[in-house]
């Protein structure tokens, strides 16, 4: 296996800041010697001259070298975190999820309705009003399932009429109030990580999806799981999502090397077998497609193993990032090659620093 670099090359990093490449978020930070300020790669401030920049893998290192955080791109906030200017609005939505918001209400909070709309569109691939609506529907479905009657659910969830409630349920959940009681909606939320936000989805029977939420992919990911599980997807929280967020956080703090989450694997028997073998690759180690195929007693299936690996819906938890080519080269990763590099490097560093030696898995 080739050595893995902590950082991309200086040329790659400089190119990323010139292009304001958001995919490099979390991979490195750029500091400007002449101003004493450090930024995220995607900062909208004027691009510094090449001879004036210095690169760091973490914000902590940039600070240790005496740099201050840029006030434009806020490099100390987790990538993809809710921006400070939206905190107040989110708190109000949480306190009163049924409130209807007009542009005037937003302006009273000192917010630009256009900016709010754009943020929700970018982060959730839906309008602000659609976001509020799916949240409200999610709460209503919860109430129905816990035994509350239709009328009090409808009016208690901010609907002005029973027919309006029925229409919304049919549109968003594809159900009547009676069948909505039995439905098992999939809730979705974002989980923040140093490598950017992840999108998690799951419900009563387990986690259905955990992927890096690259913006252009979000809408497709939603459609994919909704089709696969034949269930509506609602923005909201669920115990499985809280568990997932906790365990992912522990992973990124270097405190967790494996996961104890109920996964809804729902795949073909071949895919499921491949995913089970992925779970058996120890933290900090790698295996090749060929090795996996051999472990599956199907040595000619390396290519099919590669495809099943790509179909894995549980980034990090089912560690498809630990699969490399037989010559040791890293190869494609749905979450982006730089994330794969970062994860392998992180696990390797962590294995060394804790002195933990994972057990090798069978003969090579
Ligand atoms: Zn900046």
Automatic annotation (TrEMBL):
PROSITE patterns: HTH_ARAC_FAMILY_2 (PS01124), MGMT (PS00374)
UniProt subcellular location: Cytoplasm
Cellular component aspect of the GO annotation: cytoplasm
Database matches in SUPFAM superfamilies: Ada DNA repair protein, N-terminal domain (N-Ada 10), Methylated DNA-protein cysteine methyltransferase domain, Methylated DNA-protein cysteine methyltransferase, C-terminal domain
Keywords: Activator, Cytoplasm, DNA damage, DNA repair, DNA-binding, Metal-binding, Methyltransferase, Transcription, Transcription regulation, Transferase, Zinc
Single GO MF annotation: zinc ion binding
EC number: 2.1.1.63
Active-site annotation: 39 (nucleophile), 320 (nucleophile), 320 (nucleophile)
Annotated catalysed reactions: a 6-O-methyl-2'-deoxyguanosine in DNA + L-cysteinyl-[protein] = S-methyl-L-cysteinyl-[protein] + a 2'-deoxyguanosine in DNA; a 4-O-methyl-thymidine in DNA + L-cysteinyl-[protein] = a thymidine in DNA + S-methyl-L-cysteinyl-[protein]
Cofactor binding summary note: Binds 1 zinc ion per subunit.
Domain HTH araC/xylS-type: 107-183
Principal localisation: cytoplasm
Ubl conjugation listed as a keyword: no
Gene Ontology biological process terms, A to Z: DNA alkylation repair; methylation
Cofactor names: Zn(2+)
Record Pfam families: Ada_Zn_binding, DNA_binding_1, HTH_18, Methyltransf_1N
Chain sites annotated for binding Zn(2+): 39, 43, 70, 73
Job description of the protein: Involved in the cellular defense against the biological effects of O6-methylguanine (O6-MeG) and O4-methylthymine (O4-MeT) in DNA. Repairs the methylated nucleobase in DNA by stoichiometrically transferring the methyl group to a cysteine residue in the enzyme. This is a suicide reaction: the enzyme is irreversibly inactivated.
Family, as annotated: Belongs to the MGMT family.
Additional facts recorded: This enzyme catalyzes only one turnover and therefore is not strictly catalytic. According to one definition, an enzyme is a biocatalyst that acts repeatedly and over many reaction cycles.
Protein name from the UniProt record: Methylated-DNA--protein-cysteine methyltransferase
Source organism per UniProt: Blastopirellula marina
Organism taxonomic ancestry: Bacteria, Pseudomonadati, Planctomycetota, Planctomycetia, Pirellulales
